[in-house]
Structures are given as structure tokens and as C-alpha cells.
Amino acid sequence: MADRYRILTLNNIAQVGLKRLPADRYDAGPKSEDPDAILVRSHDMHALDIPARVRAIGRAGAGTNNIPVKKMSARGVPVFNAPGANANAVKELVIAGMLIAARNLLAATRFVDELAGDDETINTTVEAGKKNFAGVELPDQTLGVIGLGKIGSLVADAAIKLGMNVLGFDPHITVDAAWSLPSQVRKGNSVEEVLKSADFVTLHVPYVAATKNLINAERLALMAGNGILLNFSRDGIVDNSAVLAALAAKKLKYYVCDFPAQALIGKPGIIALPHLGASTREAEDNCAIMVVDELRDYLEHGNIRNAVNFPDVVMTRESQFRVGIANANVPNMLGQISTAMADAGLNIHNMLNKSSGDMAYTLVDVDSAVPAEVIDKIGSIKGVLAVRYLPLH
After folding, report:
1. Helical H runs in 273-332?
2. Can you give the C-alpha Rg of the chain in angstroms?
3. Is the domain of 177 the same as that of 79?
4. 158 and 206 share a domain?
5. Looking at residues 290-303, what average pLDDT do you find?
6. In a shared domain, residues 152 and 219
7. Segments of the chain assigned E as strands
8. 67: containing domain
């Protein structure tokens, strides 16, 4: 284990998180050279020359589109994130977006901003014009929630407490998410069913190949009319040109999103916010704390928790001597690792191996110090991407 770890911060990371790195063992800042790890928020790392020494990347947020995850996987470098840490902040913004749209608040405030004259004239104009901004109340409206992870579940729960009917759809819902979902949520069987049935639709899915333009012209055509679509996930999930066409055809009344785009700005029915989803002090603090703890646990003990490109592998430490091995998910890897250690006369005290897709990760606790040549031998095994020796000092 390194005497001191160097952490490069590519954005301002909340101090409450950075303070969890012991000052006697960590140097963290924007000028850290040849770092052991990188902490990032929104900085685009795709064009960055990431030093070979980097052993981990931590994203103080949920999305990792700004990080070259595939390239890091090939180097055996886990990319950590902070799922759920900003969930309450996003939930509150979704509810705010629903209310802004339901009560026509954006158009109403613009109307007020253009008022002129004395108070009597203003009051007369207000009384004559306010009928143009009459809205609807949320109770008994149907909210469709597409994606029932942490954020989607919180939105569903909040909507139910506001008196709404909730229809949810998520083909990949986890057991934990299912347990946390309010029992009043009705199960939808498809995106199409949700769009046909809901007055409001909110999206809470990751941006991957399968969700690109998930909401397109064909699906928007299924809406009953004058619906409200909310997107606080990622911009690529919705086809902007299809949204504009749906607004013109009165299939949509409003599109509320967190992702301004040239095609949307200033268009009727568009309520675009400047990417405020996680922009609260509490969310930034929560994300920083979570990802710093994950990064530190990996650097010091090799444990992996909440990495987007590796399985969770957390093993209670039972020995002073530990080896962490990132490898391709191929046959006989454990056998070769065990053989390399046995040939050197090392006794394996405990071992944990897990795989996810093409990637696998192994932690090995041994009863005595591991010579450098054994680490080199394991590193030379075909399919091994990275080896780290993690003795306690």
C-alpha cells in the first residue's frame, strides 16, 4: 500500500467529502501530478490523457457518460459513482416541474414580467388575462414512471402522497427497488402502455444504447393528448424533434427537461432547466461523501462497491496481506491465481471472486507477505488486467 495517495480533483468536490481522506495519507487537489485516483463531477475526461498510475476514478454523481469507462475497463480500473446520493434532489425537481407545468407557471410569470402601467392598470390586465393560465390539480391525475430505481421510486411515492395515481414500468427492476416501491403503484407492461394511460410521464432510466430515443415519434403518438412529459434523466433518451412535433400536434402540452438544446430553447411548450437535477448543497455533499468512501475503501483494501464497470466485491479483511486482481471473465482464472500462490508457498486464507459481463474481480487474503515476483507472475497471466498488493502497515 502506498505511503501517501495522490488524488486529482477535476471539479470542485464538496469539502465534506474530501475531509474523509486522512490528511496524513492523502493529497487531494486540482494540481495533483501522477495521481493514484481521480475525482470528477462533470469534467469531460474522454480527451484526457489519463496517467498509467491511475487505479480508480470516482464520479461524484450517478451518470458516467463523461468518463471513458470502456477504456478504463481494459486497464482494470474501476469507475465508481454515487447512485441514489442525489435522488431526493432530483425527486424534488421532478415534483416542481410537474407543478410548473400543471399550473402553467412559466407562461404566467412571463405574462407578469411584461405587465406595464400603474397598479390599477396592472390589476385590470391581470384579472382579464389570468384565465389563460388556468391549470389542473395533481390529485386523481395519472403519473407514468418509466424507470423504478431510487429516483423513480421516490417520485412515485411523492406523487401518491399528492393524491396521484401512479403507473410504473421497469423491465429491469432490482429486488431492492421492488421492495422500496409503494404498494399503490400499478404495474405497467410496456413503455407504450404507460404513454397511452398517463397524464404525466416522467423518465428515470440510464442513457445506454437501448434507451437512446426511447421516447420517439411513434411512442409520443400514443398519448391521449395534452400530456406532460418530464425528462430529468439524460437528454439522449428523448428525440427532441419528435417532442416538437408532438407539441405542435397537441399530443403534448409541455415538455419539461433538465437539458437545454438549441432546437428546444424558446419553443412553445418547452420548459428547459439548466441541468439543476443534483444542484443542491445536500446532494453535492452526499455524492462527495459516498464516492470518496468508495474510492478510499478500494485504494486501501481493494473492495469494490458501486463501480459501473465491475461487480461489487467486498470482503472482510482477515489478514494483513491482501491482493486485488482485475481480470477478464475467462475460464480457469482462479486456478491460475491459486497455483501462482501455491508455487510460492503462500497459504490462501480467504478468497472472493465475482464477475459481471466481461469483467471479473478477485480478492485474496494470504497468511504471509507476498513477494514482488509473485505479483509479477499473476500480472503476466493472460486475461489479468491489473494486480494490486495491499498489505497493511
Report:
1. 281-301
2. 25
3. no
4. yes
5. 98
6. yes
7. 5-9, 26-29, 37-40, 56-59, 79-80, 142-146, 165-169, 186-187, 200-203, 227-231, 252-257, 270-272, 321-328, 348-356, 359-366, 384-389
8. 1-85+281-310
**Domain membership flag for residue 52:** yes
206 and 93 inside one domain: yes
Tell me what the mean pLDDT of segment 211-221 comes to. 97
Residue 111 lies in a domain: no
pLDDT at 200 over 60: yes
User: How many folded domains does the chain comprise?
Assistant: 3
- Mean pLDDT for the chain overall: 95
Question: Do 202 and 155 contact (CB within 8 A), yes or no?
Answer: yes
CA distance 291 to 191: 32
Does 146 share its domain with 267?
yes
Write the DSSP string, 184-215: TPEEPSSHHHHHHH-SEEEE----SGGGTT-B
User: What integer is the mean pLDDT of 85-107?
Assistant: 97
Same domain (yes/no): 142, 268: yes
Cell of 161: 402522497
> Would you call 273 exposed, middle or buried from its count of C-beta atoms within 10 A (0-12, 13-18, 19+)?
middle
Q: In what order do the strands lie in the sheet with 79-80?
A: 26-29, 5-9, 37-40, 56-59, 79-80
DSSP-derived 3-state class of residue 356: strand
Q: Which residue has the higher pLDDT, 65 or 220?
A: 220
Q: Backbone phi, then psi, for 111, in 5-degree steps?
A: -60, -45
Residue-wise pLDDT tens digits, 104-128 = 999 999 999 999 999 999 999 999 9
Co-location of 249 and 357 in the same domain: no
Dihedral of the alpha carbons of 91, 95, 97, 101, in degrees to the nearest 10:
160
Beta pairing, strands 26-29 & 79-80 = unpaired
The interaxial angle of helices 333-343 and 372-379, nearest 10 deg, is: 160
Predicted confidence band of residue 96 (pLDDT cuts 50, 70, 90): very high
Do 173 and 264 lie in a common domain? yes
Q: What is the CATH classification number for the domain harbouring 342?
A: 3.30.70.260
Q: Is the pTM here over 0.90, yes or no?
A: no
**pLDDT value, residue 387:** 98
Q: Taken in order 169, 170, 173, 177, is the CA torsion positive or negative?
A: negative
* Per-residue model confidence (pLDDT) at position 1: 45
- Asked if the model's pLDDT at residue 53 lies above 80, the reply is yes
125 domain-assigned: no
Q: Answer whether residue 3 shows pLDDT above 80.
A: no
Q: Which sign does the torsion angle of CA 331, 335, 336, 338 carry? A: positive
